[in-house]
User: Fold these one by one.
Assistant:
Number 1:
Amino acid sequence: FEWFESPDRSRIERSLELLRTLGAIDSNSRLTTLGRAMHQTGAPTRAAKLLVAANSMAEKGFDAKTAQTYAALLATLLSEKDFLLDSQSLQDSAHEECDLYLRARLLAGDRDHHARLDRAAMSTMKRILRSQYDVTDNALRDTSANWNEKLVFRLLLEAFPDRVARRRRPKAPQARMVGSKGIELHASSSVRDAEFFFALRGDAGVSRTSGDPLTTLASSFRREWLEEASLQTVEASQIGATKQQALYRKRDLFVFDEENLTVYRERAWMYRDLPLQDGHRERANADDAFELLRSEAEKRMADIQTRNEAVLNLLSRLRFLNITPQDIAAVWNDAVAESLFGETSLQALVASESDLLAKTLERKLFEQREQFPSLERDLRETAPSHFTAPTGNRFRIHYPENQSPYTEVRLQELFGTSKHPMIGKGDRETPLTFHLLGPNYRPVQVTSDLPGFWKGSYFEVRKELRARYPKHSWPENPLEAPAVAKGRRY
């Protein structure tokens, strides 16, 4: 049908994917029997799944009437506006580590608290429970007093299978959800210690530390409950598959270690794509590591371009020729991919001393003759990588943005230089700036006029350093003295 205002296509796709995950539609986007039952409830998608799922809880060992009461309570709590404005005063007695339990207590009339409440929103929930689901005050009080964690888990697993999360580290608020998505528990959540929980909402903003969505509504559960539920065979339509399969299985997982930038293979028990335990870890082979490495390299493009000296130097030289990273984006991606063949770590790209990526990028750029017909000559003649001193030693030329190119050289290696070296060609020609170093390799002068330096401030430098370094050459006429090479090169 025609939309008055058409929603974003990605939102439609996410909605369809949720319906497939919950079993409401099949792989051809047609309503299933379950989907028709959900539609008849008139409730929002996940709430509808809770209400329909309650009818099958008797088969799993729960009282049917109790299950329907819990489903109605959970559906209301998760569909309507939250009435609890401050849960801090309730957390000390929240043994179940369930934010829904805290709200159930309040709806049941718990007065032993000092929490701030939205009374209007609370009244709306009570009215819906009574009129729409026939849940009495007595039923609410009984539910609150005899909170059944396992029943809550089984219902939530039906409606929120994609919101299952595992804490990344003990007691840390950060967690990983199904689908490899990050989530972080809000400080107001009562889920303090549990390793596994449902992240029921992610609408509390974004964490300043992790950048992940914050969840204020969470409900913990035990791993063995998930294993028990997942081992049961499910209908193919509920997971969008073509045949029946188990959601709980042992499989290989390839993970990227942020500390050493290496891809590892773990053999672990999984719920969907979420590892339920830390499995045996070993270094992945290069073929298995390739795609994950390439993805991680894309995330670290700026880091690689600034930490790797050879890459930084090449990009700086290209910028001097008015070629930006945007101009070579496609070639960059190809060079990264080729550099990662046979690798299981990003060290070869990130390490400051590695020139693998720079050489690969340069070669691939030279192959783009239609786009860059004279690049090889321009890099060699207009933006050279090194300056060759009179001694024959080569020194790297740096091309800082919005500054003149410069190099660092011991001043003794430049004796006899009567004409100042230039860099670039035509309107790009500019004097090469020298950071002149003393025998201790510390800067003693910066100049873009060597002949002027020899005739002027050289003598002040000579006077200061000759007494400290008497074994080094300090001629009275540096323009006629031979250049002297001694010590390390740059």
Number 2:
Amino acid sequence: LLAGAGLVLAKPKGHQEPQYLMDLIEQTGVTTLHFVPSMLQVFLEHSDAEKCRSLRRILCSGEALPHALQVRAQNRLPDAALHNLYGPTEAAVDVTAWRCRNDENPGIVPIGHAIANTAIYILDPWLEPVPLGVSGELYIGGIAVGRGYLNRPELTAERFMPDPFRKAARMYKTGDLGRRLADGAIDYLGRNDFQVKIRGFRIELGEIENRLSANSGVREAVVIAREDGHGDKRLVAYLTKDHSSELSIAALRAGLAATLPDYMLPSAFVILPALPLTANGKLDRGALPVPDADAVLSHSYEAPQGPIEIALARIWQELLELERVGRHDHFFELGGHSLMSLSLVERLRQQGWALEARAVFANPVLCSLAAVIDQNQNSGHALAMPPNLIPDYFGQSLNNPVIEEFRL
């Protein structure tokens, strides 16, 4: 308004109706839009956005802007400049800005550079600047920093800190993570409270999300740590795709495995038509569904063959909480991990099968692991199979107390 622009007000909840917004923009000649990325995605999907020829700029903030959405917006609305903004309420909202361009930082949408009279620091836990390209926490300095939280002195002292780089100034501790790219722009890496610890490893969920979003065909990616039935945490990726694309769990997992360590690989990939949103258009993490059998990387099903494979498949089903396991399935691709492999070895030991943990890593496919067990048996290792694991091949029960040891 200070620049002499006119403000067009949508009807209540009109922002949730893409076609209504498109008609309003077209009728009133709107030149500037400010969208939460999730709502921009919906707008582009469910309206004739190309008709909005008056648009000259689109601003996005409130959550991370995926690269796939940037490309989609620029393809649908080539005459409108797309700007990615960042900033918390505690610092007068937006404090960085970036004009999106396809030819810079492939696969990444930076939050850009600090605006005028604002400083952005990327610091380590000792409040020292981190090197170029290294992740650190974002701190905001300058005139935009607020005075604190009303009637909350302890939280104010925790978040609004003395600025070590400017005399008599303060900075705001955002709780967000970022790194500085080679051109000086800032790459947003997510919240530090989305950092999780799984099996002793500290994991930045935002880093996994960024790698997934860089895949062709992926519109949006969210990764959470979800507890399984054993009380253990596992990583689950939730994705939406472009309508013209097909996402392969095998390809997604292989792409991540090329750049991330094993402990950062999601055990399940859930592909959704759309991510669940709250009433104000932000991601509703609590509404993300529990992964089902389609979310894990399984191979063309072939039933286990022979008593060892059948017994081993039953143990995998219990550990991995799956209804069915095929003879060509991969223990770690189904969601297994290092600690679970130890549980597997212990289950086998309880059944009388001696196996070293490294054998599971060397032979993660069910039929291959069964072959190792068979080889151990043939080389002289006694493997007892209790009656309750002996398959009933002949339509009659083999759970006979007389059978105390079953040698394969």
Number 3:
Amino acid sequence: MSLPRLSVQRLLMLVFVGTLFVMASGPLIDTDLWWHLANGRYILANGVPATDVYSYTAVGHLWVVHEWLSDVLFYLLYQLAGLRGLTLMAGAVIAATGWLIYRLLRRGGLGNNSAVVLALLLALATSPSWGARPQILNFLFTAILVETLLRYRERPGRWILVLVPFFLLWANLHSGYLVGVGLLAVYLVGETLQARWRAAALSRAENLPVLARPDLVRVALTGVLGLCAGFLTPATYRTVLFPLGTLSSSRIQTLIVEWSSPDFHVTAGGLPNVAGISLMVVLLVLVAGAIGAVRFRRGADPTVVLWALVTLVMALTSQRHVPIFAVAGAPLVGVAASTLLAGLGARARPERNPTQSMIVANTLIAAVLLVSAGLFVAGRSSDAALDRAVAAVEPVAATDYLLANHLPGRVFNSYEYGGWLIWKAYPTYPVFIDGRTEVYGDEVFDQYIRTKFLSDQWRQSLNDYQVRTVMIPSGDPLRLVLEGDGWKLAFSDSGTRLYTR
């Protein structure tokens, strides 16, 4: 049996994918993970809820469970492999997405080594969104969609309709499937422009394939059927409308960190802001490549240009959308980088056939790296390591004390503690608030903000909801007024305090 042709270029790509897996499979605990697990457990026992069941402030309010299938799959994976299984799954999804970003960069004419470097930068730009959360499935599905659509214009046919069941699956995993429908609509516009410009001899991109009218009709039909996939979910038409409500909520956009614009400062908390710096480098490459394309009169691909522009606007508006730009903008980033390198006189080096000794050496290097990475990941994903990571961000001991001592309810909890309480203390202790911001509406969210940030009416919410226990971080300013207002400290550790009255 002959050894695989593991050249230096392929080894570098393997190291890149492995590095992403190692980085993304660490104990990155998202506080919303816990209510997703709790909801998967609830769905398997009771079906998909249509109204809120986890709080006492919004009980009965409409709840669009647009991630129901992800919740179920996450819970089943947790039952099978624990938190370790979820973290490894997250690492695998990010690594697979990074590999597809690499392929999309190569489509732009970029050499292997340059594509690996830029793919790593694009992946690092998405790092604030890493973790075991349904949202990461949007990154992978977007990458699969973009790669599929670019292949379609090289080999058009009826097979494009395979995207209809693809959208159906995506819609039940996350309402972010609408991003995919939007990218398909942009693709249709771009390919239509290219066909018309070519017919009018206006396009300089003569090497681009052109879709015929029947092929464009199939794309349009796929888009319409893909949009309708949202109606084949438990929430039906509300799944389609849900993202619009999130994007139009001023409180979500201004008060939730991940919906804010990316941070481009050189430092954040005294450490380099890797995500912001990586995104800035990619944007500089885009600008320099655009200048080079104008100078050398290089023809543009309208589809990849539109994809990049639309998703760049999304990314600059909200860091939650940076991963979408990292994927959909990758083809244009590849073109821009190859144009820039050509302008600097660099030439892509052809991949040479590796010798037998090189194959053996590279195989040994790859084996050592894979074993080392496996041992490192095993250490970071051990039960003890994951327990420490959870305890560092969640009120583990405080919740145990709450349940063991049957402290009087209702509980006012910090926003970031809501998911954990739903997972561990529901139904004994419904929450005041949690990460499902859209469920609570402006009224409850405003009451939480008034109390949390000590407005003149901070007592009103506690009294209105008959709160008798408060769970907050140890350094929360609310503790100062509670201690002077008749509340008793029931429990305290380095991370959390419990007060009762």
Number 4:
Amino acid sequence: MTIVTTLNEADVIGRCLDSVAALGSVTVVDSGSTDATVEIARSKGAQVLIHPWEGYAAQKNWALDVVVDEADWILFLDADEWLSSHLQDEIRSIVDGGRPVDAPACGMPRRLVFLGRVMKYGTWYPDVQIRLVRAHHGRFDDRRVHEHLLTDGPPVMLTGDLMHAPSDTMTEYIEKHARYAVLEATQLATNTSRVGLPLTSWFGRRQWLKRNIWFRLRCRPVIRWFWLLIIKQGWREGRVGFHYATIIALYDYMIDLAVAFPDWAAPRRDQSPQRTGIAAPLESQSDSAHSM
């Protein structure tokens, strides 16, 4: 069973669904698309469920509750992601029983495609994502943005790439990161996530380091830019690597602004999410756990 959450994803949903066609049934959870997303999904054989937007984690957990008894393994994808052929083969062997897995979940490396370029340098790769989980063995954590799948035990790591190609225009891409920055700042202020504890798990340690060290560093945007462009060798990607490092450094700067000036950074109440990748207004982001 594959679950894909969508909102106005007509330009990318077909590629996503084609990559999982051989893995079994697919459920698309749409939060009110006004383009051809739903029609394309149904034409690809997917079951479409309409559910009002609750927030990144809450939307996926709602879907998990609906389908959890329908499959032994559940794969989560965003509409702008798709499986490489190698990852397709790995997951097919697991769900078909050809490769026994003694673990509650599987992680996979995610590779970014930015401005049409498959990025080999200058990103977080392998940017491990836990997306394949046994039924009843995982839920998404209680976060406003950048939700993670929390499981009963450590995952088995796969080697095929999960591909990710944001299709936003420049305006949409900057706007998306501005909204992410507001959500991240709100997360820091409220600390609603209950998993950010050191030594409990890799994700817990990562959250503890982000909150207690990373977000307290001065000149963090400059550090981020240097890390992506020099340490992660983004310079080897040419202008594309430079542009990506600069945008992500800007994202860190916007988080600082949102923390310092929360009233100015907050979205208007009449705003609504434009795509799966763009955050909804803060009041529509659910913190209840029911979450690349």
